[in-house]
Design a protein that fits this description.
alpha/beta; Aspartate Aminotransferase, domain 2; 2 domains; 12 strands; binds pyridoxal-5'-phosphate
Length: about 475
Amino acid sequence: MNQASLIYEKSVSGRKGYTLAGTDRAKADIMAAIPERFHRSRPAALPEVTEGETMRHFIGLSVKNHHIDKGFYPLGSCTMKYNPRLNDKVASLEGFVSHHPLAPCSSSPGILRLMWDLSGFLREVSGFAAISLQPVAGAHGEFAGLLIMRAYHREKAEKRTKIIIPDSAHGTNPASVTSVGFESVQVKSNENGVIPPEAVKAVMDDSVAGMMMTNPNTLGIFETYIKEISEIVHKGGGLMYMDGANLNANMGIFRPGDVGFDIMHFNLHKTFSTPHGGGGPGAGAIGVTAGLEKFLPFPVLDKDENGQLFFNYDRPHSIGRLHSFYGNFANIVRAYAYIRTLGGEGLRRVSENAVLNANYLKVLLKEEYELPYDVHCMHEFVISGSRQKALGVKTLDISKRLLDFGVHSPTNYFPLIVPEAMMIEPTETEARETLDYFAAVMKQIAGEAKENPDLVTSAPHNTPVRRLDEVGAARNLDVAYPE
Ligand SMILES: *Cc1c(COP(=O)(O)O)cnc(C)c1O
């Protein structure tokens, strides 16, 4: 049996996997159209394989890696859920994919209408007055939001340089703060995993431009004191930013725009039907209050006096343009299709089930694993591998062992406030049997840590490759075929 893993190794001279109609004629025409000096002197060294072998090759490659279509993927904060294929199909409709991004607004009414309607749905879901679909990542949305904060204070001729960030915030928050030229001031969450208003009060002064709050926070806990904290920050002249990447827990239940937040980003590529991760294109739409609308990145989708949609560039207060064209349009289409398919009631059920699944799994896992914040969680929760660490089995080892059972690792060693952290987000699309299976595997690994720790510390055993030098693989990437 041919175990070759590279398609070149499967190549046999003279095999082919295609038949093209009228090839000779077409080939002659093509060759005639290419200037002589560009002709090859010898044929390209391409693999010669049959169609069947080619199929097997690529299917084989696709199952070597772990992915959501293959198995459970509880990577906390990334919302790795099943995204309906229907939405990909809608995003691939001819009218969308073949429309030129430089086509005038007058020839793009359907496309503009889709963005207009999606903005309306996002306003409804979030409670904000205005939306921009332009940012192309969650972190990009944060960047946009912080530029808006800066523009707001500049207009008032106030020099404010600091942003309050809880220790339970997502890691991109302090990075965005630095990118915009602000400085982070950390506040600590309390023993229940939430930010106490006193902590914010203690650091709030007239050098603070605002506060960024991840909600639910990275412990998967809903912030209890939003109203009190917003009041403190607003009274001190600052603005409130909500990191809304975790909207999967909130839809149809809690609207950030109603309770004192001024700016928020969505991760359309988590909550709304585009997978996160893998470096694919994202969509980090932002929502703002009416008073901040004038600062939104331009162009802004607008309606003229005849009710025609157009891109308005005449925005003197805008923070400017953040991306070419209008964001990642296919993500926008998928988000639209997702929301239209589910409706308001459906979105609420997404969140209810995401929260239910997380709480169910949390209860199953807390027997064998330390649960540092034993409170009702939202769409995710954090356990600690500290008991296993004491036996010589690190969280990293547990994660590697999970691969032997066809399960992706949870998010590891984050948030930083939990030692040996495992951040687990099952999502609403997993069946109870999958959650039970995962819990059983985690229990088995906890048992192995006690009885046979070497089995865990030397894992994975069943994967195509074992422990990789992950840093080296990323830094010194070599994808060339060894000749
Ligand atoms: C994923 C995530 C982000 C960043 O989103 P990217 O699209 O990866 O830049 C920010 N905050 C939270 C809470 C997240 O989960």
